[in-house]
Amino acid sequence: MEGGCHCGTIRFKVTKDPYWVGACYCIDCRKISGSPYTVFAGYDENVVTLSQGIPKNYASSEKVIRSFCDTCGSPFAYTYKEVPNKLFIPIGVFDDPSSFVLQKHIWVSQKLPWIIIHDDLPQEI
Ligand SMILES: [Zn+2]
Ligand SMILES: [Zn+2]
To answer: Is 105 a domain residue?
Structure first.
């Protein structure tokens, strides 16, 4: 699967399916995306190839580095110190995200009260 930022500076490819797909309701994801929550696909680092452009890195907390296009601001991925060698990509930056299947909800404790979860998937506080 391929994806990239809005302006096309950054392009990437993944060669395997994600090992994890989760919706995150945390405040940091909300600020970074501008949206009430973000769905991420997690990959082993070595199945993700940047084919074009160099994302800019930003440490959004002690353990999380987020990267984005410094021209258009689209997010590219985040890494989490406690889960080494994995890359989490917001599914909205894939060219066709329609095949992703949500597996869980995380940081539900920070979810906005009017977001109602309508499935029985696992939820992490
Ligand atoms: Zn861009
Ligand atoms: Zn989050």
So the answer is: yes
